[in-house]
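Input.
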Amino acid sequence: MTADNRSYKKSSFGPAFFFLGKRRREALADYYEFCRRMDDIADEPDVPAPEKELDTWAAEISRVYEGTPRTDLGRRLTRDVKNFGISRDRFLLLIEGMRADLQGRSYRTQRELEWYLYRVAVIVGCATLDILGVKGRAADELSLQLGSAVQLTNIIRDVHDDAALGRVYLPQDMLAAFGLTRTDVLEGKKPRELAALLEALAETADGFYARAFKQMKKFPRLKMLPCRVMGYVYVKNLAKIRATDFHFIRPVKLTKGEKLKSIGYALLKTIF
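Output.
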């Protein structure tokens, strides 16, 4: 379950990339296409042999770095890797996270959950900042804070849909602290206790968002526009979830209009 990595060309996030040059826009589109393909392999029920599909793509990424790709996407990624110095782990760690989904991996502690957050969200932020030309320890810290916040929001939003797939990302120690078990979540039991747990997880996400926005101030404003857009949109989504008191069955998502308002706010904060 990655952090909504659809191609920006097909999403309302497009305005966030307006100020980027063509090569950077294309590289982001290519990387997000890779993320979406990996996500589909892990999530779509009609993929006949998903583990083998991931193996195939891991091999293709090796060929990308050898300069011998076999697919159209691989050839585009080869160009992007050369242009922007995208490191191999930006691809392979994401694949590792998708394997964890396929295996139904559970997480005993919040520290173990961080292992998963890094692979399906933080590493995507690292690749995005590579392409934006923002590198170094401060960039890694921004990726950690924003990626963790976004993915925690996704986990909260999709808790029931994930349970329908037999997946529970909530760490076991946190479940126990709120009087819950993995089975309770899978079977939709104890909604009051689950709501309390999700509220606590949302507070953790709030801290990540606050640190991410603070970290963004260290970089050029225009280069932070995509990050700021992502942050404001997901903060707004979390607020909409919070308005239900964390009692919901279907994922609570922003309307297109609500998302555009958040993007507009991010643009104003960036320019002014």
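The domain at 8-271 is CATH 1.10.600.10 (Farnesyl Diphosphate Synthase).
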